[in-house]
Amino acid sequence: MAIFDIKLPASIVKALNLPQGDVRKQQLNVLKKLLRKARFTQFGQLYKFDEALLSRHPGKKFQQLVPTFNYNKIYNEWWYKALEGSPDVCWPGIIKYFALSSGTSEAASKYIPVTKDLIRSNTITSTKQLISLTRYEDVPKSAIGKGWLMLGGSTQLQKGPTYFAGDLSGIQQRNIPFWFMGLGLYKPGKKIAKEKDWSKKLDEVVEKAPHWDIGFIVGVPAWLQLCIEKIIERYKLKNIHELWPNLSFYVHGGVAMEPYKRGFEKLLGKPITYIETYLASEGFLAYQNRQGAKGMHLSLNNNIFFEFVPFDDKNFDADGNMAEKPQALMLHEIEENKEYAILISTNAGAWRYAIGDTVKLVDKERSEIIITGRTKHFLSLVGEHLSVDNMTKAIEMVSDELHISIPEFAVAGVPYGTFFAHEWYIATDDDTDEMKITNLIDEKLKELNDDYAVERKHALKNISVKILTQDVFYQFLKAKGKVGGQHKFPRVLKGNMLQDWKLFLEENVPASK
After folding, report:
1. Does the pLDDT value for residue 87 go beyond 60?
2. Integer angstrom CA distances of residue 319 from 37, 233, 374, 379, 381
3. Residue 263 to residue 411: CA distance in whole angstroms
4. Mean pLDDT computed over every residue of the chain
5. Cβ–Cβ under 8 Å, residues 488 and 225
6. 8 Å CB contact between 277 and 288
7. Which residues pair with 337 in a beta bridge?
8. CA-CA distance, 347 to 167, in Å (whole number)?
9. Where does residue 20 rank: exposed (0-12), middle (13-18), buried (19+ CB within 10 A)?
10. Please, which residues have CB within 8 angstroms of residue 3's CB and are 6 or more apart in sequence?
11. How far apart are CA 388 and CA 395, in angstroms?
């Protein structure tokens, strides 16, 4: 199989041509494959994987036998042993790689196991997405064979006793398939990719930029925007297309693109195609596989078994903690446009694992989802049930109405006398009026969320907005050691993160912009 001038190896072609069945059958086949592979692990023995495999209803039996896990629970009971070098803990063999992930709120790094099987699965899903681009209309197919600028974490990983650890993007780039490397498509290349100092890495990318013919850019919006701004400034360009005329695709994920688009498109000379992906440290869960799709297609038959927990008061407390025995549904059992927390079981030894994201099924026939937020990144001080999806949409609407760019924002819930209030922090380098933005955000949220509209008449007494420059958000991430790679600014500020943010503003930002 060839994608224009990209010829794929036979093993990848075979994996791409797996037969398609109905959703339930595909997912049960995935589960049985995972259970068979891990049946003799310590985890598989304790939780009787053989019993689930022999059951007439393996999915339901699996749910009965195996409890749900969040990171702290599965790490403290299981993954720590794999980190110490024990073999056959939750997946056969010794785990060679661990992805370091602190999400957007936690201070301490999480160690997420990454197996060779998972890396291969991620590669197969990436290739499926690449093939889907050939079906896009009015998109220059020649761009597919041009350079891919992947701006991620360092491939220079931390060395442990029996493992290497670092950003998943660094691990994945370190294991880029030989057939992709051999074509010379991968940029910025191995030497620059190893650089740990983010500022130095950006400088080296800027230096090399004129020597590359880039068709794709891949990475977190905030950092790619910063990189392109530096390139334009360095070479005195009107836009990035003066240097890279074949730039046609932006593959993004991890954070909603909408707040960044207005600012990002100022850097372009012509429209490009945005392609959303759902690549978490735990696996490549979903990707946009058709032009104009609202959602991303779940990777149904590639070693990820999905479960969905209704995101409601029965299954989650006010702080977003999941109940010990939540209601968990398979993909064929869930409904469109309802919010669910997602659980995954994978070929890296994650079992019924809550990754912390909430999603909605937007197209049942195509198994397409959108990410709506995080289980702990929402505001419901008095029953307003404000999701990150609501916040992002409101910001997008305000940005469009005022013709300004708002690439970053964050919200905190705070006491207000005997009641409560929301404090918004908004990044824009455009001239605007704080009170006008405050009133508009409030108005848009009332349109988007009935619960919010009700509570604004009762216990949610106030909403305030502080306008900051985009650089303030960058500098805070830098102060927290979260520069570049996969790091994103949290949309909801709580606990220690909120305290650190307020202290940072007191010390670094004048009382008014």
Report:
1. yes
2. 36, 44, 11, 9, 10
3. 21
4. 88
5. no
6. yes
7. none
8. 19
9. exposed
10. 130, 131, 134, 144
11. 10
